[in-house]
Amino acid sequence: MKKNVIILTFLFILTNYCLAEEVSLESFIKKSLEVHPKTKVSLLEFKKTLAENLAYTATEDWNMFVSYSRTQGATVFGSYVSSAVSSSFDAYTTKSLSSYGTSLQIGVSQIAATNQPTVGNFALPDSNTYGLKVQITQPLLKNAFGKADQYPLKLKVYLDEIAQITYQQQIQDFITILTEEYIKWHYLENDIKILKDQVKKSKKQLKITERQQKLGAAEILDIITSKQNVLLRENSLLSKEFELTNQRKKIYFYMTGNVSESNYQLTSIVDENVLNKTLLKDSSSSLLFLEEISLFKQLFDINEKIASLTLEYESENMKPNLDIYLSADLDNYKTYLENQANDDDNYTLKGDAYPFTLGFSFSKPLKNIVQNSAQESAKENLFKTISTNKLNLNNLKESIIMMYDQLTFLTNQKIIIKESIRLSSKAANLEYKKFDQGRSNSLQFYHEYKNQQLSYELQLNQIKYLEQSLINQLFNMNDYYITSYNLEDIK
What topology does CATH give the domain 21-54+151-308+372-489? Predict the structure, then answer.
């Protein structure tokens, strides 16, 4: 029986050991990025957008058209020996050379007619006509040099860049959220360390007070206040442990996509701080980065380029259509009579013709109200985009300045809180010394100073948490996670 108990105890210890895991910030983020569906959704949305943007390259497609028809029976007045048959076939392809605005068309055709009727003394000849046609159309005003044709191609490039920036920012924002959760986890652990230490000390003080009361050196009231302090700290500890349990489950869910077991233990691995403040740019460098190369700035610039490109496109459409076209045909025509009694009377007409056509076309709406409206709207949209970008950039700069100011404030506040902790501890020791020497009849003031000390220690931990949270947000604003996790290589 004893042997079985030992084995069960060993298995219990082993199980709890296996369920315990220390997790660094880097491993937590990497595992979460691999497992969490948020990452996959963002990637698929990015790929979906790129696939949709391919539609803007349709202007460079080869377009093919094919038609065929066959007619059988009498089609004109006359005498028929047998049922007349006529057929036609057309096939051509077009291609737009967007770099020049040139339109190219290449086509083949074939028309045949057999068993044609005799009208009076004249027999309509059977015929078979086929040919090859090439036509080139070059715009001289509207869409000259392909200015209109290139609009969707340039737009696609900009939209692809926006999709990439959006994806990078989504992943960076997710990393920021993960980092925030890790920071919260770490400082909850710190809160519990502080409270456990205070619970231990308050219980020790309660035992001392109980012994003193038995010796007549302390009052019942002192025992009551000591017990109240123990209960107060235990209640605070219980609350924080509940928060920590939920936070551990959240961390576990991010890493695995599963809800953690109740006995699963995770521990953060950090030193004093989760994030290294020395890696943070100073405020001037952050503002310069924001204004020159940040993802926000890149997005603003692309939006302005799109608005400017749209204005150019609408202005191009204001021009009249003046196109010059050139076409060349290669035809072969053959006729023959099948109803002649004497083959010598049959005749064949053969001839090669190469028609060459040069011409132009011109069209222009007189008032062009629709296009005037489109151009004016595009112009105002460009001005609006520029102004909106300036406003958003100023708001971002203001946010950065405020966050750096808040960091400075928290740094100064830490100095004050640390001094307050030192003074509260010193006052509590002096008050206890007075009580021990009989110069004070109660431990009330001692407990008050110890409560102050605990409150200040928790405040200090909260300030450190807020400081780390601000650094995390500033890392995001400075695109720190883009380079740290190689997000700039996303294509």
Answer: Outer membrane efflux proteins (OEP) (1.20.1600)
